[in-house]
Write a structure and sequence with these properties.
Layout (H helix, E strand, L loop, with lengths): L3 E2 L5 H10 L5 H12 L13 H10 E2 L4 E7 L5 E6 L5 E8 L4 E4 L3 E2 L17 E2 L2 H19 L5 E4 L9 H12 L11 E5 L3 H10 L4 E5 L5 H7 L8 H15 L3 E5 L9 H13 L2 E6 L14 H13 L4 E4 L24
Length: about 350
Amino acid sequence: MTKKDIRSLKPAELQTILSDLGQPSFRIRQIEEWVWKRSCKDFNEMSNLPAALRTQLAEMFSIHGIVVDDMQRSIDGTIKNAVKLHDGRVVESVLIPTDKRITACISSQVGCSLDCHFCATARLKRMRNLNAEEIYDQVVNIKNQAEQYFNRPLTNIVYMGMGEPLLNYQNVLGSIDKICGDSGLGMAPRRITVSTVGIAKMIRSLADDNPRTNLALSLHSARNEVRESIMPITKTNPIEMLRDAMNYWYSKTSSKVTFEYVIWKGINDQIEDIKALVKLCKQVPSKVNIIEYNPIGDDRFRMAEAEVIKAYQDALGEIGVVAKVRQSRGSDIDAACGQLANKNLANLQV
């Protein structure tokens, strides 16, 4: 049987084990610094631990880690990683470089249980949730790539890769704790964005727990009938329910929600669609990112005309809502938003 990853232990569990081994409590801090701050994967490298303890820990536990099974580089500098987990499953993570920042787009699930029609990941069944340490390891890998290939630090993290973060809630929060904690990578929570398709109950939970991150909602329509036709989750989480949850988020965090919004020809490009989004933005403190559509081989979805996009921007601008158009990066290697589907490693998804 595969040994348990020592990083999956709660501090109280680790303390009990160390106590049984006759070790003082400060060993917990030393071990946590090795595995979370230094990202150590070998007990033998933990030089400030007694040799006998290192041997005992190696016999009892492992540090699974991840392996980059395939790395692709885009003409725009974007890097896509096919990351193999300890059980052979594969997820994808992406390094997105711009002039001002380097962003890690990380996955939270192997596959996805939702059925957003415009997303390639939705075509994969959800196989399992990622553990907190597997999410953390993706960040460490991209942090190292940023330094190796760009000689720059990782500045931002988005939970926008494969899977729905709020359906892997505890592991996502656990990974944020280690990414931001003093015993971990020490990143500022405000540099992290959690993106959801819109699960009202879990948005409220996130507001209550308030990890001090940003929240983004993959919206794409503020009309229930339109949104439901492309995002079935709308049936159980209609716009009105999401509106109330997002206002609850703002009341708890004072942080505006970012609406992620793709405009498709013949789907959400009518004046009624614009008015509906304007109405919602009046009701919810928010910003809007208009995202360039990245094709996944479905002819139903085609990017709207430029004049429609400008009409959206103008209407939102009139009520003081910033609506920026986000250009896609990495589309030539299927690394852009909505394209992550392990195309080149499907044989490993068994």
